[in-house]
Design a protein that fits this description.
Blueprint (H helix, E strand, L loop, with lengths): L5 E4 L15 E4 L8 E4 L2 E9 H6 L1 E7 L2 E7 L8 E4 L15 E8 L6 H14 L11 H9 L2
Parallel strand pairs: 4-8
Antiparallel strand pairs: 1-2, 3-4, 5-6, 7-8
Length: 151
């Protein structure tokens, strides 16, 4: 159900004038927000954070869904903001068959507290990567918006 949905319970209201038939009772629903799922129509939106190694090398993570936890493969080279679609894992459609999708947006978390060994390893990696800024060709504002929306 959506927030603000109204349900009519026929004949469950107060009695009418002079003991006439009972009126209707209207119940308006207020949906409590979920701690990490968001809803957009029949789709469920979820943000997950992964570390740099998972993004660069790929990994299998556990993703919560409405049906319980499910394994999900993060492909190697995944960039922050990438949206993956889990087809049929969203909210059931009202008065028809099927369900929406679950869209998982990946965020690559940058570590803030590195051990000495981690810092040393990242410095070695940095030497091999260079310092060149790599532009994404042909990515205008509309392309970036489409990527962010998963369109």
């Amino acid at each position: 159900m959506d927030d603000g949905t109204q349900i009519r319970l026929a004949g469950q209201g107060e009695l009418g004038v002079n003991n006439g038939p009972a009126g209707n009772l209207y119940v308006q629903l207020k949906v409590k927000p979920h701690p990490y799922f968001q809803r957009q129509e029949n789709d469920i939106l979820l943000d997950v954070s992964i570390n740099f190694a998972q993004a660069a090398l790929g990994d299998e993570i556990i993703v919560p869904t409405l049906d319980g936890d499910t394994p999900f493969k993060i492909p190697a080279g995944t960039q922050t903001g990438k949206v993956f679609r889990l087809t049929g894992r969203g909210v059931p459609f009202l008065r028809r068959n099927g369900r929406g999708d679950q869209r998982v947006t990946v965020h690559v978390a940058t570590p803030t507290d590195l051990s000495d060994e981690q810092r040393k390893l990242l410095k070695q990696l940095a030497k091999t990567l260079g310092k060149e800024v790599i532009e994404q060709p042909g990515k205008g504002i509309f392309d970036k918006m489409k990527d962010a929306l998963g369109v």
